[in-house]
Amino acid sequence: MKILGYKRINGTYGIRNHLAIIPSSICASDTAVKISNLVSNSIALPHQHGCCQVGEDYKQTFKTLVGLGSNPNVGAVLVVGLGCEGIKPEILAEEIRKENKRVEMIKIQECGGTLGAVKEGARLASEMARELSKQQKVEFDISNLILALECGGSDSTSGMASNPAVGAASDLLINHGGTSILSETTELIGAEHILAKRCINENVAKKLIDIVNRTERRALNMGEDLRGSQPTPGNIEGGLSTIEEKSLGCIYKAGNAPVQEILEYGEQVPTKVKGLYVMDTPGEDIDSITGMIAGGAQIVVFTTGRGTPTGSPIAPVIKVTGNPLTYKKMIDNIDVNAGKIIDEGVTVNQVGEEIFNEIVEVANGKSTKAESMGHNEFGIFRIGYTF
Known about the structure:
Blueprint: E1 2-7, E2 13-14, E3 18-23, H1 29-38, E4 42-44, H2 55-70, E5 74-81, H3 89-97, E6 102-107, H4 114-133, E7 138-141, E8 146-151, H5 156-175, E9 179-182, H6 192-196, H7 202-220, H8 226-229, H9 233-237, H10 243-250, E10 259-263, E11 275-279, H11 285-294, E12 299-303, E13 317-321, H12 324-329, E14 336-337, H13 340-343, H14 348-363, H15 369-372
Parallel strand pairs: 3-4, 3-5, 5-6, 8-9, 8-12, 9-11, 10-11, 12-13, 13-14
Antiparallel strand pairs: 1-2, 1-7
């Protein structure tokens, strides 16, 4: 199956053509936003990190920012630095530049302060935006698409309707040669043994069990037992009683495909081996989506029982609910009503095909409801203290 998008020099394809303005630290985030506000078709990625981070926490933030700038949906990048932060803007720009896209860099301290940086940044950004506007879409095979799978604000209908339907859509994409990423390690707890049976070999299965155990240890080190504290209050109000029940519903999003490999947060998804991957991300929706997009996902399908408006600045987010009442109450936010499985007798596979068709349309340029309303929620998963 063929769809339309933007061919990148490194051989990947984007379904959007963003100019990303990426601050290397919190100290440059506001300036990056000010620049973006002056330049049409640009997106800023303000964040709280990039300085006074150490060890693996520092590496994860750096890797994530590089991955976001390298995402196929990003056509060009302006890195904005303060000039004395932990994540050096020139090194960040250099790493993103390895993907053979235009990357420029400015430092606030070398531009005469905020006003000078905004002036120079807007000059460079507007020039890059004009260059991007000349790029034409080309036809490419849908097998080049990487789909991020997410759920949030779950209720009892998530495991009954929306997640199984998304699983069916994921299987359709994989059958066409594409790739899907299952995320949220906290929502594998209690169901990891089932998913492990679908891993392609014992080594991958062991990695799966390891990331679940690692997540539980992290919580125990903070004095919390996830099996006792989860689900969240909203999940409980939605009818979920235990984390195992939530996890059993969550893994339906992965359909029936075998698990090819386990990825660390923000790790690049292999392009040569297609299929289903599992990425170690938190249960917090925004941070989880960011990790998968940093790994190369160009599009997101997000199931929600209770409803959420969440979007993303880089990848379009398709919202699916299995709750007919939520669809009626939040119709301006929800793209697909999987609640038809519950109250209209429509089959899971039929709704799965509807979601797959929506993926194709959005990939070809249709705006999701989150995009049309400007939902650009963004966050990076932290795994350490700031010093």
